[in-house]
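Notes, Module 5: Reading structure tokens.

Key idea: the token line is not a picture. It is a compressed description, and you learn to read it the same way you learned to read a sequence, by spotting repeated patterns. We will look at two proteins. The first is printed below with its tokens.
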Amino acid sequence: MIPGHKGEIPFVILIAPFLAGIVCGLHFTGIIYNPFPLTSFLTLSSAFILLNIAYRAMQLYRHRWLGGVLINLVLFSAGWLVTNHYNELNHKDHFAAKPAQYLAVKISSEPTAKNGITRFTAVAEKSWYKGVQSPVSCTLLISVRDSAARDLYYGYELLIPAAYNTVESPANPGEFNYKQYLANKNIHYQVFLQQGQFVILKKDAGSQIVAWSLRLRQRLVQKLKKQVHNPEAAGVASTLILGYKADLSSDVLQAYSKTGTIHVLSVSGAHVAIIFYLLNLMLLFMERFRHGKATKAILIILLIWGYALLTGLSPAVCRAAMMISMIIIGKTYSRNINTLNILAISAFFLLLYDPFLITDVGFQLSYLAVAGLIIFQPVIYRWFDFGNKWVDKLWVLCSASIAAQVITFPLSAYYFHQFPVYFLISNLFIIIPSVVILYAGMAYLFLPVIPFVSAILAVILEKTILVTDKVLAFIEHAPLAGINKIWLSAADCWLLYGIFILLFCFLYNRKTVFLKLSLGLILLFSITVSFKRWRNTHSDTITFLSLRKHTGIIFKSGNKALVLTDLADTDKIFRYSVQPYLDSCQVSSVKICPPDSNVLSSFILKKNNLVQFGNKKVVLLNQSHGRMVLTSKIKADCLYVSGRIDADFVNKNYDYRLIVLDGNSEKQLVINGDKYWDLKRNKSLTLVSN
């Protein structure tokens, strides 16, 4: 519902400066605690209180704007203050601020095991240095390569060596920024432990409620696996119903992602709404009793928050649980509350508890999708008027899907670089199967074991999931099913939102000024995108990738590229570290060759270990070349060295401007002050060739 006046949505207006304060706090904070936000908040709050006390005496009614300015500044400083306080790097007792030999940590998340490594987050509580114990705090990520770590659980207190390190920044262009991802979760350090490097000090040291919910979820996951025999079906059921993603296969995840139905696998508002609808029907009889309506509301709210706790308290679930709780309270006491206000209130309380949630992709997309449904869906629905009630119901669903997709498109394209063309078809299809999966799964999980009934529910659950996966896989591989390699900058993302909002305003009130402004932004967006495409297609570059023990050199000429690497394009390292750079450059033609192969193409010539690319000559050297005898000195712009090679041999046989050392090379190779680039210790290197 679109409000007719700003007075209908006061919380939406008031949360804006609070959000701005959080963003400011995220970008302007340091390790040393900054007193400015606290001083500003106290000063402005005192001024606002004084203003209200002396309102009449000072005749401030003549300057009504003054109160509005002050409350906005108070909320802005409050957002900055809570962000600064929440940032663990600002805590005086941070474990990294004190020397330590050992740390006592308490596991704060459910450990997950994959490829022989168990990972979990833990909160540091004590440190020891030369026999002296000190209280510490803050979170770190722990990875353990030890079979005994499979028995670790939430709430265990461990003694570990204080051999922590900062999380590495991405080494190659386009690579996922795991360091920033963890920083957004307030984690800045990690520990790698080998066999026998931890000791269990105590068990059940965490929250008993959280521990109980996690153990219950594990038992429910095991119950699913007993009669849902297909591993993929069991993984989807665990993810969709319980929010347990450890068993979800990458192929299934990709199918849901590329068809625009990934939201189904994230326990979110739709799941909570379906559960609320079921609970409301089951407890409808309570309204016939005295105080039954209030009792029913309390019971439903408790059950919804219990389900949210069971599924891991994700931002989307918390938002939905809080919104539905407020709606239930409003309906119980016959209060009409604007839905946008409820959305803003839920966001305020969640961000007050954890301001870093604003950086969470799920949080952003969840709130945007709901805002799109509230604001855009009614307008889109009024575009067509169907006489047939079933067609009209179908159009309601279509308008909701379009509204959610439009408002989330710029952000999802910015993060995931793709757009599902058939999102409308896949979202319409997924509605009924997701409801069947949720209801059948919950009946199977939460009802006692009834031999015949439980088996039937398990079969319905498994077959529905398998059919759904097959249909989504078909849509995923349909012609033109998705637009990939969409790489937007933050400025592009904001431009798209400006275009969509202005176009919506024009369609809503038909004022041509909004159309003119939107056309201006469309022109600006087209210019920026065209310039980036022109720059990519008219640039020739050589990029030496930092792949540790692997070779990776990309020769890019316009929209064509040759990749010299010992990795296959299906290798995880290639998909994580090489492919994103190719996609970000919008390369349309890629050829992958082993480093020792000969290549002849329109833009590159490689023979043995010599490469001619534009005006750049590159020589690839490894241990076998170190034994060669050359008759004359070879001039080269760059030497790419892999392995151990004698420095005297290099300087005697090659005249070069730059040496690039890969992850297997020795730094000691470089002598006499020669210029070098060590890929083991530095990020990737890009050279321009004309």
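Here is the second protein, with the sequence above and the tokens below, as before.
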Amino acid sequence: MSARARTLVFRTLSIAFGLAILALVGASGCGRSNLNDYLVDGADGSVDGSDARPPEAGACNATTCPSGCCDPTGTCQTGASITQCGALGEKCQSCQAEGFQFCDPTRHACGNKVGSCSATDCSGCCEGTTCFAGSDPDECGGGGKTCQHCQSAGLACAGQQCVQQACGPQSCKGCCFGDQCLAGTDQTACGVAGQQCANCAAGSQTCVSGGGIGGTCQGQPTCDPTTCKGCCNGNACVPGTSSTACGIAGQPCADCAASGEACAGGQCLPPPPVCSPKTCPGCCSGNTCLPGNANSSCGLGGNVCVDCASANESCQGQTCVNVPPVCNAQNCPGCCDLGSACQPGFVDSQCGQGGASCEDCLAINPPSRCDVNVTPRTCISQQTQCPSPYPACPANLQTPVPTQELVCTPSDLQNAASACAAGAHSAGCQSFFKFEQSQNAKCATCLGTFDYNFQELTGLFECVAPFVDATCNHDTACIVDCTDSSCAQCPGAGATAQCQNQVRTGQCSGYYQGAQCIAQAFAGPGAFCNPNQYQGNVGSWMAGVGKYYCGQ
């Protein structure tokens, strides 16, 4: 490989590698001078380059998060990530965990690129050659038929069909009285954002309107068991989960911290015992006592747990022995039990994913549950790793190879260049795709394949995919998969951005090194995919790439 080719790929992929920062793109409107700046800051002006939005006031729902989805912590995400996909304040989906290739950033729906997109290759619904899951508000349907846009018609998607929405945050700006949506400004039916109506009169309060849309009960209510599910701090009802204000059922709050105790389930309890040979018959992972019979946490007598799998050994009788486990990440999508049999990994006693050792969440002290809504699956009390371990990249993972479609006019491409100049996730770019979807849906779908900022790498990899071999497309797919999987459990946008930078030089670094394979394509037939050709302007890049793949 020539020195020039190596320089091109390092300019595109390096971030905190210990490599010198090389200039790749010219100064843009925001003063950025190289692609490394895009990887750190993000072309759309965000501080960390991630899609996560800042915390919004109130609960995460359709009112507070209309264009994104709600993650397990109740934080509104943009809903355009492969591990956090969705819209209208619904629960975020992990497209990757559900077997989909990507999250369409325009529709906020999980999908796959297929051939004809019909009943033969799509169990969901079709938009062009994209097969969507068929369970999203505006991409609803099954049997390979054209997707229905339920939300646009004021309906909901249930069972892959458009149905009448029940009263709730998605359908009511006032409050719900049963299944009836009321204005929410009445003294006896007061509320907002699709919550159940409250009777302010019963609590000697007043329903105060919030600008004509719903209302809230205000006044000096009395905190007691009839009005408070948490605990009473004077006349104020608080959740009752704090160590300084703990309680349930409207009882006076207790200060657990004053006596050196912790709040659990609304009660002050002594802190859990320190894991040691005196308290743990298995092995200690930090201050948690584990059974000690799993390949990833093996041991006995309260000693520190050992990862037998890292030495290609297996745990037998709570001791690592030189017998490689039969069940592993290459042949087991679930978890490996004590007999080296692959288990699905969804139950509390056998929890796990990606060929890791099954965890018995019930045997942990204190007992826990299997969280089936995270990737990889793990016990709820064990979700403290950021980044999470990444065993290996699936052998069959490939970056999709886009096909050329004559669907976008020169005017479409010119508008895309202007609207997306500030970044793929800027307000202007999102507005363009929403408009384009209503005017030329096929063009919107085609361009949506490349609707990513440079630091996300996905658009760059898909653009260059036809000009590299299958091995290279596997490596580029592994970069995205490793980064997304490693950082899926990080708490918040800041931690996620830090994790992404960390794994690029850590557990995912091998895949980044392998992606040098795109250098020759960037300098040859796929040169139109190189950001250097567009001075780092996302809009110009999208128009140039769109002209090749989507232009008439």
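Summary for the second protein:
- The two ends are 35 Å apart (CA to CA).
- The first strand starts at residue 69 and ends at 70.
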